[in-house]
UniProtKB/TrEMBL annotation:
The chain crosses the membrane at residues 83-105, 111-129, 136-156, 162-183, 195-217, 257-280, 286-306. Residues 1-78 are annotated as: Disordered. It comes from Micromonospora echinofusca. The keyword Transmembrane helix applies. Keywords: Membrane, Transmembrane, Transmembrane helix. The keyword Membrane applies. This is CDP-diglyceride synthetase. Residues 63-75 have a biased composition (Acidic residues). It comes from the Bacteria. Residues 17-33 have a biased composition (Pro residues). Residues 40-62 have a biased composition (Basic and acidic residues).
Length: 350
């Protein structure tokens, strides 16, 4: 009934090693090292390789790209001491002229001070138009001079001393300057670039007329004396400090130092406090120091901003303009900003 031999007879026996098929034991340990190549060396993994051009030598694996050259440090602009001393002297003379001109102003006698202001406005127009060079230079200069005459007339002849007439004059002068450049085909392309320069020149000219309005307010002449003296001292001390110790440099391209800016504002505030101790009511040393501080800081920062603007024009490749105009621009801009600051502080503090 049963065969005498097993059906497994004639088949190969199982080898001694593991049986084929899935193993029920633990899986083999993962391989940690890189797989060797045929020549026994390890194969390095990298990104996609670029196809080698005909005639180009093969790249060795140990070749490394050359390091990029370091950027050259920017050499700071040299501070010229004679120039700094000259600008300091100009700022001092300008401040003395404005302060003495304010003393000639009185009820019914505003014209002498108005003539002094008009002379400073002409210097402002000359310096700023030659330094900034708007597209229609003569047109902008003519409009600015007309705005100066209109602002001075409005400041003297207005029934009520206020800034509203000056605001109308500034808006009208700016509009005329822009329209005059739009009419000319040559300047129409650069009209966008000239908007900023036209606005600065017209507003700066009208800002000087604020001093005439301030002289018509009670205690306004004393406020002019305190604020303009503080501004003149701040500008002069800042430039003198730059001639002696122009450090730390605020920017390599600007020949100004932070020590001069800080020292100028501090000394200007101190001088205004001393003046306040000699003036009559409503002035006190504290009030005089406050309004003097605001005027001094405004003047010094405006002067510093002019230096940055000049450095920016030189870095942009624009040719330098008239030497005298470029260096008169800073002190004139400082006094132009200090004038409305003096008016505002007189209204707020006194």
């Amino acid at each position: 009934m049963f065969p005498s031999s097993s059906p497994e007879t004639g088949r190969d026996q199982w080898p001694d090693g593991p049986r084929p098929g899935p193993s029920r034991g633990q899986p083999p340990a993962p391989r940690t090292g890189p797989a060797p190549d045929d020549d026994g060396e390890r194969r390095e993994r990298g990104g996609p390789r670029r196809a080698r051009r005909p005639g180009e030598p093969a790249r060795r694996p140990d070749d490394e790209p050359d390091d990029e050259p370091d950027e050259e440090p920017i050499e700071p602009v040299e501070v010229r001491r004679p120039l700094a001393l000259t600008v300091a002297g100009f700022a001092a003379l300008l401040g003395v002229g404005l302060v003495l001109g304010a003393q000639t102003s009185g009820p019914g006698h505003r014209l002498p001070f108005a003539f002094v202001i008009f002379g400073v406005q002409l210097l402002f127009v000359l310096a700023w138009t030659m330094a900034m060079r708007p597209p229609a230079l003569l047109l902008v200069a003519a409009v600015s001079v007309g705005a100066a005459v209109a602002a001075d007339t409005a400041a003297v002849q207005a029934d009520v001393a206020g800034l509203a007439p000056l605001g109308y004059v500034a808006a009208g002068g700016f509009a005329l300057g822009v329209l005059g450049q739009l009419v000319r085909r040559v300047d129409r392309v650069r009209v966008t670039d000239s908007l900023g320069s036209t606005l600065l020149i017209v507003v700066g000219v009208v800002a000087f007329a604020t001093l005439i309005v301030l002289s018509r307010i009670p205690a306004g002449t004393q406020a002019i004396t305190v604020c303009l003296t503080a501004s003149a001292v701040a500008l002069t001390v800042a430039r003198l400090t730059d001639a002696v110790a122009p450090w730390p440099r605020l920017a390599p391209q600007v020949p100004r130092g932070a020590a001069g800016v800080v020292a100028g504002a501090m000394v200007g505030t101190l001088v205004s406090a001393l003046l306040g101790s000699y003036l009559v009511t409503p002035f006190t040393p504290t009030r005089a120091a406050i309004i003097g501080l605001v005027a001094a800081v405004a003047a010094v920062l405006a002067d510093l901003a002019v230096g940055y603007a000049e450095a920016g024009r030189l870095m942009a490749g624009e040719p330098p303009t008239m030497w005298v105009a470029r260096h008169m621009q800073g002190p004139l801009g400082g006094f132009a900003l200090a004038a409305p600051a003096a008016y505002a502080m007189c209204k707020l503090v006194l």
